[in-house]
Amino acid sequence: MTNSNKLFRWRSPYDLKGTEGLFAAAMAENARFQAQHCPDYARILREQGVTDLTDPLSLPPLPTLYFKRHALFSLPENKFLIKATSSGTSGSMSRMAFDAGSLLRGLAMVWRMTRYHHLLSPVPCHYLILGYQPHRGNDTAFSKTGYGFTFFAPALSRTYALVWREGSYQLDLEGLRRRLLRCARGPFPIRTIGFPAYTWLLLSQMEKEGIHLKMPKGSKITMGGGWKQFEGQQVEKAELYRLAESVLGIEEKNCVEFFGAVEHPILYTTCKHHHFHVPVYSRIVIRDPDTLEPVPNGTPGLVNLMTPMARSVPILSVMTDDLGILHDGGTCGCGIESPWLELLGRVGAKGLVTCAAGAADFLKGGGDV
User: Fold this and answer.
1) What 3-state class would DSSP assign to 16?
2) What's the burial of 88, exposed, middle or buried (CB within 10 Å: 0-12/13-18/19+)?
3) Tell me, what CATH number does 253's domain have?
4) Could you report the per-residue pLDDT of 29-68, keeping only the tens digit for each?
5) Separation between Cα atoms, residue 320 and residue 163, nearest integer Å
6) Domain-located, residue 112
7) Are residues 74 and 204 in the same domain?
8) Is 209 part of any domain?
9) For residues 341 and 116, what is the distance between their CA atoms, to the nearest angstrom?
């Protein structure tokens, strides 16, 4: 069994201390594979002078901007089972593809994480997906993961915020509103999953109309993704939790948020204090925006995400355009001892290249899109 498979089958999803050696070994194992099978990644290692693959911190953190401009694959296309892209709101999209082994590791991770956070249930429910209705022309990761989340509990129905009609996606908050009114009169719980912006738009509009419901026991509000084009209307999480209880009768303890990226397909799930703790499947480094050097916990900087999950693409170490703070483990108070990530906002692709001076080095020699 490979080190990566051992890591993703680790019994406790937050046992970072117990998996330090295994994580480093899995990263080195994956880095050697990428260097042998992805010429562009081998070139990047040479240009950066990386010869020691045993230390995850020595691996070059590739900016998400790089993947938006270059498609890097380490396996032939006939090995890919799923292809996915980022949302493309900035005008370009990262293109990812995953083989069977990568997907099996991902499934093992999802099963352990959702079981740990009590998201698996045998009770059927109605799903309101505040995102894209699946369509053969839509390869965005969110359209796939949004549908995938509807298997955490048996689905009685799936109602989408973004519905494919007449050749394009159209926002249908009225359809979600009608579904909620019907579900409030029935015995089965509801679960929402999707963009927090659409969650806020739906619930705030219902509150303005004076609608106050009581969803059946077991109902949950789950959210993932950023505010994208709604950044000017972004509200604090506390306001979303208040709306969930005011409009739907769903308490704050049943509001859960997810974090991840197509370039880093690891499932981060908030604890009862709404913090993103680092699971065993990844490590997070906060880097100084000017030097890209790691900074101590408690210091803000650029978020660098690492995982050995995928063999099909060299996404071992990815530099996001997120600003964040990594807090020491044990400071949350929820009982999870691993460090937790506080997200402060995004700098965007231009800001990432501008403030992270060394990032441009990783874009050399890759050709044009």
Assistant:
1) coil
2) exposed
3) 3.40.50
4) 999 999 999 999 999 999 999 989 999 999 999 998 888 8
5) 30
6) no
7) no
8) yes
9) 18
